[in-house]
Design a protein that fits this description.
By secondary structure, this protein is α/β, with parallel strands linked by helices. The protein is built from 19 helices and six strands. Strands 1-6-5-2-3-4 form a six-stranded mixed sheet. The structure holds flavin-adenine dinucleotide. Flavin-adenine dinucleotide binds next to helix 10, helix 12, helix 15 and helix 17.
Length: 459
């Protein structure tokens, strides 16, 4: 789809151009418009491909009371696997990943990034458009600090470049109906055009060729060791190659044809698509997923289930535009509403919920699963969030922050938007959703198998 170039500059393909790609949630080489743009404008210049961890720490936020500074082990591992895969792909294309990481010696990756930009006399920056309020604050700070740099901001995370309606409807249903009436994306005859992987990438600047301290792989020793048992427990391994492999395996199976009936299961790998983790950090592009779904509909079957995969992808799209529309309100206690909820912070029940020691076995099992694997089914998320808000009476933001810390598919809009929805301060026209946990247990775990599997104690 189309591109946006923030500064109006015509400095494409100059010999002295130094382009920097700042990866965020676009950790792939295929269908990555930001990387393709960088490849195009740096074809006669030099290229820096950077991932900077914890960049947003620089931005002052109101969420310090409930925000966790560290990632859970599973989320960190999934990210690390994604970066290893990205680095391997970039090396094949003639460059490599530079990694700015917080260490005891480097307390501020934003300062490190600024130094790199200055020292290398960067002329162009390519990034993906994002709904992440704090990441956008970082971009604004960088633009202020280096006004001479030309920014290229490309769409990589969504089906649409811009909100395809005049304004965001209050409810998902209105959004879906309008989109389906105006754009029949699921049944369009032609595939969405995918940006091919660049054939090659310009090299690093000469004076960076031996700057080991920046190279991703030389910093891996500072990172966590990949725990294979975790991969086996969760089935998820990060990275574009694994995401694409999983996409093929899923659509080569019968699972898509029964998705609607199985999607609410608590713990079966094939009962929902499991695309979320790769979609969230951009190892998979949503366009690639949609093209594969269309192919399945053309070649195998189009039914309620295949439609429902589209329906859920549209939820993801809705929350993206919800985050763009409501900005900081995504993190406000009263959300996008007028009324502050009557729930509140309370350490004891919060700790019980986090460690899976509530009075509700189904909730405990889900929380154990989350801590052990970084994943929880959609039904599980609804149940533990409902327990958090309605049974324990807690301030929903603490629950959302805990999910942020642990979910391997953490996505700012989907996470905070869904929590707001369930807390009754978001996009739910019904006000709020409370689940009857006994009934839900009978319905989704009638023989207690899920509870038995995940009943182990957490430290
Ligand atoms: C409290 C709460 C927090 C959540 N936090 C996140 C999060 O941080 N990241 C995240 O990706 N999803 C989040 N979800 C949405 C949903 O639970 C997951 O996307 C889904 O469980 C992932 O499994 P799957 O890929 O097998 O989903 P599938 O059922 O196979 O759905 C296909 C795709 O559609 C999208 N999708 C499905 N349901 C939703 C939804 N309700 N909202 C937005 N997108 C959806 C996802 O990209 C998913 O991969 C949250 C839901 C709740 C209730």
């Amino acid at each position: 789809m189309s591109n946006e170039t923030a500064n109006n500059s015509e400095n494409n393909s100059k010999n002295n151009n130094v382009t920097l790609v700042l990866f965020h949630n676009d950790l792939r080489v295929a269908d990555n418009a930001a990387l393709s743009k960088a490849a195009e404008i740096s074809s006669n210049g030099r290229l820096l491909l950077v991932y900077a961890s914890l960049l947003t720490n620089i931005v002052e936020s109101q969420d310090s009371a409930y925000h966790y500074d560290t990632m859970g082990v599973a989320r960190q591992q999934f990210l690390q696997e994604s970066l290893i895969d990205l680095n391997a792909s970039l090396e094949q294309l003639g460059n490599r990943l530079l990694y700015l990481q917080q260490t005891p010696a480097v307390s501020d990756t934003f300062a490190q990034l600024n130094e790199l930009i200055k020292a290398q006399q960067v002329t162009d920056i390519c990034v993906s458009k994002t709904d992440d309020y704090y990441q956008n604050q970082v971009y604004a700070l960088l633009q202020n600090k280096h006004p001479q740099i030309c920014w290229h901001i490309e769409t990589t995370a969504t089906l649409f470049d811009e909100l395809p309606l005049e304004s965001l409807p209050k409810s998902f249903t209105q959004f879906r109906k309008k989109i389906e009436a105006d754009y029949d994306l699921l049944h369009a005859e032609k595939d969405i055009v995918i940006y091919p992987t660049p054939e090659s990438l310009a090299p690093l600047p000469d004076n960076m060729q031996s700057r080991d301290e920046y190279f991703f792989e030389s910093q891996l020793s500072n990172e966590i060791e990949i725990d294979k048992t975790l991969n086996q427990a969760s089935n998820f391994t990060g990275g574009e190659s694994n995401g694409l492999k999983h996409l093929d395996t899923y659509f080569d199976s019968d699972a898509p044809s029964t998705y609607k009936a199985t999607r609410n299961a608590l713990d079966e790998w094939t009962h929902s698509t499991k695309f979320s983790a790769w979609l969230a950090n951009g190892s998979l592009s949503v366009n690639t997923v949609l093209n594969r779904l269309r192919r399945y509909e053309r070649d195998v079957i189009a039914n309620d289930s295949t439609y429902w995969i589209w329906f859920e992808l549209l939820w993801r799209e809705y929350f993206y535009w919800y985050a763009v529309t409501h900005q900081q309100k995504l993190f406000w206690f009263k959300g996008i509403g007028e009324h502050t909820p009557s729930t509140q912070f309370d350490q004891k029940p919060l700790e019980k919920w986090k460690s899976g020691k509530t009075a509700y076995p189904i909730v405990n099992a889900c929380m154990h699963q989350l801590k052990a694997t970084g994943y929880m089914s959609n039904r599980g998320r609804q149940l533990v969030a409902s327990c958090f808000i309605h049974e324990l009476g807690l301030d929903w933001r603490y629950g959302a922050a805990y999910f942020e810390q642990h979910l391997i598919d953490y996505d700012v809009a989907s996470n905070w938007g869904n929590w707001q929805y369930l807390a009754g301060v978001g996009a739910d026209p019904r006000g709020c959703r409370q689940f009857n946990l006994d009934k839900q247990t009978q319905q989704y775990d009638p023989n207690g198998e899920f509870i038995r599997q995940w009943q182990g104690e957490l430290e």
